[in-house]
């Protein structure tokens, strides 16, 4: 009699556990919605894209999108050309107007201004700083923000050669983040689905599973708790592999800088093509290296070590030497790492905690560094 009741007890306890998990999930999903004002599934993946014949994908023209997470609330306006703009109906003519200085920003989400309103983004703050400094010598300043979240340099360069240069920019700023070792391949791993989301091509079951788990509240809050615990009790934990997770793009932990290494040679091909295309368009180029938060926020070091950055000082040295090498090759570049570190104020984050991007303070600090460089005050 007792033995026959054991299976029954097992299934009763399993059913109780499942009900408990479901209730916990519903409660946490509700908590997220109440505290954030939006759904968890919109925290990372955004339906803001459209297929584009040159770069593969682009910002959706005419978009007005409210982006809410547990860390920020930002609104994005995209004009009919796919550029992020400060308000609706801001368009730019292909032919540059007389007495106008045009600055075009290229790059991924850091260039786009992910997580902040336009006036608080790098482009918005840079616009104000350059106008205050009379950088254009009395001419009107136009900043065209051509940044596209998740966009890599090589495919965006194709877009610039076919479309972007027709806007006749005087200066092109190219953002590179995380590592200066970029790929020269224009093949993108993404496609845009009919709802406007980026989808990984040839996605396997493990990738699909990760995408689903990102939207589960118990997983989300469990990961948040784990990162806090990991920071306190396992400050030096790290993975054995060189692949860096959570960087938003394919990235490996760099070794010592050597121009003969294959990853450096491949990246130099991309930078050289960019410099040639910008010169051919009659414009100046500035490459801006953007560090990830582990280089700036001390409290983020343990989390990034767990995600694959095993030697932070070595990674920072690699990128600094790469920037120096680009300048030696007559490709103007700036590493803003040290200036961002100098701008850190205790208790005020330059980067979001879960999201990898700049806060308003980080955007402002980066814009100040670049403005000072452009005006010769750095």
How would you concisely characterize the structure shown here?
This protein has 378 residues and is an alpha/beta fold. The chain is 40% helix and 15% strand.
What does the model show?
This protein is an alpha/beta fold and 378 residues long. The chain has two domains: 2-37; 42-374, Rossmann fold (3-Layer(aba) Sandwich). It has helices at 2-36, 109-112, 122-132, 153-162, 205-214, 217-233, 262-280, 301-306, 312-328, 337-342, 360-374, and strands at residues 49-52, 56-59, 64-68, 73-78, 84-85, 100-106, 140-145, 171-177, 190-192, 198-200, 284-290, 333-335. The strands form four sheets. A five-stranded parallel β-sheet has the order 7-6-8-11-12, with helices on both faces. The longest helix is centred in the N-terminal third of the chain and has 35 residues, at 2-36. It starts with a helix and ends with a helix.
